[in-house]
Amino acid sequence: MFSGKQKPSGAGSWGEMPRACATVFLAIYFTGLGLTVACNTSSGSSLLLSVVKGKLFSFWLVPPWLDLGFDYFLTYGQQADATRYLELRKHGEDNWLRLSGPNVNYQQSIRWQRLLRSVVSSDEEAGRESLLIEGFSGAAFRLCESIDIDLRILVEPRPERQLPIDTPAPSVLYEARVRKLAGGDIQLITSEHRREVAPVISGSSGA
Amino acid sequence: MGDSKSASAEQIAEGVLEQTWEKYWFLPAASRSLAVVRIVTGILGLLLCATYGTDLSDWFGPQGWLPIDSIIAWRSSFAYSIFDVCERNTDLSVAFYGLVFLFTLLTIGFITPVTSLLAALGWASLLHRGPMLAGPADDTMAILLWCLVIGASGEHFSVDAMVHRRLGWHSGRPRVRTRMAVGLLQVHAAVISLAALLAQLKGDVWWNGTAVWWIATRKPGRVVDITGLLLQSEYLCNVLTHGVIVWEAIVAVGIWFTLSQKMVARTGLVVWPIVGILTACPLWGLAMATLTIPLTQLVNDA
Lengths: 207, 302
Known about the structure:
The complex is a heterodimer. Chain A is of the alpha+beta class. Chain A contains five helices and five strands, in the order H-H-H-E-E-H-H-E-E-E. A five-stranded antiparallel sheet of chain A has the order 2-1-3-4-5. In chain A, a hairpin with a 5-residue loop joins strand 4 and strand 5. Chain B is mainly alpha-helical. Chain B has helices spanning 2-26, 32-53, 56-60, 68-74, 89-108, 112-129, 136-150, 159-167, 176-200, 204-207, 211-216, 227-232, 234-254, 258-278, 282-291, 293-296. In chain B, helix 2 (32-53) runs antiparallel to helix 15 (282-291) and helix 7 runs parallel beside helix 15. Classes of the chains: A alpha+beta, B mainly alpha. The interface between A and B is large, with 72 and 85 residues.
């Protein structure tokens, strides 16, 4: 490949061996780039591509934050990307404490939105269920000054493009009671009438 | 006779492909425009760091919303973050402001080969500490930083260049690694535009021309409220929505042709930030504009 006459030459040029090595590296990187784009979309990816990417590319593309799909759909006009709020209260109390309203600064609110989206979407992902809520529990207990709290995520449906703008009332997207049991285990009760069999999500007997 | 003709055609095609590849990746390039990318990336890094700064301990602190155990269980097993070992708020602040300091050094171009590498590692580390907080601007920032690690971005408009001049060292000559960095920036600009375009085209709102309305009604991340304007004219809403799609398609294709490359890149300096504002991702718009700075040929690389 590098035996032709018209090669880049002169000061600063590379010899054949470095060029060959760079070509191989670029070819491998571009294969990885293609796979990361294919495997990181909201549409999901085939088992074959996932396994190939996972075995051959993830271990060196993940650490430098290069395992990216660039799946920036920005909006599909659905609830999934509408504004969300996190609210907390001591279990049994009436007043909710809103933590991620739209009045905080620009990037803070946008990162909160990503976090809340992850909380809801991860609830349906195998191996990630309740992980973030479990993480939330420490900060939530501290804020509510209680080890038995209610937590909910509301979504604010967006108004249609018509005058007058009629913003629908927020609806509850996720609601759970989180409490610390004797021994320090955290229990997540998403359905109150089944609280006796609700899962313990952390601690010695947790997931 | 026919066989020899097709064989020679194959050889010619192979030669053209080889020459194009060689010229694209291995022709030494001057690094003034990459130095501009470095400065803009450094400033962008500082802006992105500022978006973490106020909430750092709320998110990552010992009493924070994202305790390390949950994050380790959440993220890939290959991920690692230096912030994982920060168990106290003080450690967290030291690590974070260390990264801010690195971005400052990168912006002014001080010991650039080292600072660019450390900034890239530090940035990846910060993102791995809270992967679910990262968005398009953060991802694009990582790409920019790794390209700066590859290229010689500190040979112009930098403290390094001043020191080299004072010491009488010869620097700033064309380099292959600069050419590779510029090439990688170009490839990623096209890939990101194309991937975003494909992702958007899966949604009805990008086809029926209302996507910009839905984004504008979302308060978090909104820089300016254009709902009033969009209410006045449905055509305007449609034009803006389709405009974003068309622009991404133009970038994905247009930056590969000599005729259109410079024009697309220069237009991008204005259009990408506008796209960023319209889509409530202004820093992503800036990062995308930065990717194609070398293609604008506004900086004299001769």
